[in-house]
Amino acid sequence: MATTPNLSIADDFTLRPANKAVLSSVIEAFNEDPDSALAALPWIDMSMDINRQLSDMLFDIETASDADRLHYWSIHDKNGNFAGMVGVGDELQFENSHYNLGYWVKPSFRNKGIAMQSVNSILSWLESRGGYFRIEVAVHPHNKAGLATAEKICLNWNGQTLEEFVGVELFGRTIPHKVYLIDLPRNGE
Questions:
Q1: How many angstroms separate the most distant Cα atoms in the chain?
Q2: Does the pLDDT at position 159 exceed 80?
Q3: What is the pLDDT at residue 65?
């Protein structure tokens, strides 16, 4: 089992294991751009208390971070400002997968390559642990930024894009998603 570590992603950014201490920053980021937050967190029910749902999410992340079921990080700049979240979880579409990958960057930090650098750091960490891991990236087909990032991840990590859409269950509805698979180690060793 592996505990979620601190990771560096660039000279100016770090990944810290996500916990309840970032709740106010997550709520602020959610309110700054609810549409992109919902694309990254599609399980959020807008008819319920958003703050409570985000608090519950961070509690679950913090509780499970030592169990090796999921690993989530908050992204921070060199001044400690919250820039987003990234991580691997256990909401899987395929039996032989180990983690699903998700990322969400605040609008003021977008277009700086932060999501890609964060993902590279996380996948490098997983790869360094040894053994085999299959990572899923499921993206709603209307999420153009998410699709572009997933394509870059696949290119960098020798991943594959599934040709057919895969139905993801959300609120009792099946919603088609584009799914990408990354196998670690990259060289199949």
A1: 47
A2: yes
A3: 72
